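Lecture notes, continued. The same structure-token format from the folding unit now serves as the input rather than the output. Read the line below as a description of shape only.
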């Protein structure tokens, strides 16, 4: 699963505090999702999660905006991840291995992963602040059923 797919699932799953992002789980395509389609899917997922945790319309609206903002911010990182994967293939299939270039790419990929992680964490924290403790418990219970989490 590529970073874009993992990112999308993490954002949407996390915005429901690991609620249901199954609307996105079936997507198995390599190209970037159309921004309008992404926003539509985010809206549907948040509505679904909102029902499960008894979120008010105002909470759902806030969660939707958080998810859409994170998706917009993370979209360029998906393209960067794809480029880095292509660079890695080129480096490892070259006639000779350039260890310095491989190390530079490794460092770049770690920085990329950190940027993705920071943005997802920001979205998760903002989402957690929108929901009350009881709603977060409901979301966590749903996450345990959905992902078999402990």
């Amino acid at each position: 699963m590529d970073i874009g797919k993992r990112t999308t699932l993490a954002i949407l799953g996390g915005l429901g505090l690991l609620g249901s992002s199954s609307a996105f789980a079936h997507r198995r395509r390599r190209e970037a999702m159309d921004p309008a389609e992404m926003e539509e899917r985010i809206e549907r997922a948040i509505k679904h999660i909102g029902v499960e945790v008894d979120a008010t319309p105002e909470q759902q609206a806030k969660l939707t905006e958080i998810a859409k903002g994170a998706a917009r911010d993370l979209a360029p990182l998906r393209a960067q991840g794809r480029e880095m994967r292509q660079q890695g293939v080129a480096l490892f299939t070259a006639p000779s291995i350039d260890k310095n270039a491989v190390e530079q790419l490794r460092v770049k990929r770690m920085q990329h992963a950190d940027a993705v992680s920071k943005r997802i964490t920001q979205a998760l924290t903002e989402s957690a602040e929108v929901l009350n403790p009881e709603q977060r418990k409901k979301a966590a219970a749903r996450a345990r059923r959905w992902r078999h989490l402990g």
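Point for the exam: Residues 16-28 have pLDDT under 50 and may be disordered.
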